[in-house]
Amino acid sequence: MFILFWIIAFALLMSTLFAIERKMARSNELKEELISLLRSREQK
Questions:
Q1: Which residues of 7-43 are buried (b: 16+ CB within 10 A; e: fewer)?
Q2: If you ran DSSP here, which 8-state letter would residue 1 be given?
Q3: More confident residue, 19 or 44
């Protein structure tokens, strides 16, 4: 029973970390898009 608790806790932790990592990757993509937009406006 105790082992089952640890398996569930570990699974929740991993899914949370995975969700956070995906959000961070998405925000990095948005930052890069903004930077490229600003650079293209500067060149005009």
A1: eeeeeeeeeeeeeeeeeeeeeeeeeeeeeeeeeeeee
A2: -
A3: 19
Kindly state the percentage of the chain with pLDDT values over 90. 89
Query: Whose structure tokens read 């089952």?
Result: 4
Query: Does the pTM of the predicted model rise above 0.70?
Result: no
Q: How far apart are CA 44 and CA 34, in angstroms?
A: 16
Beta strand extents in the chain (DSSP E only): none
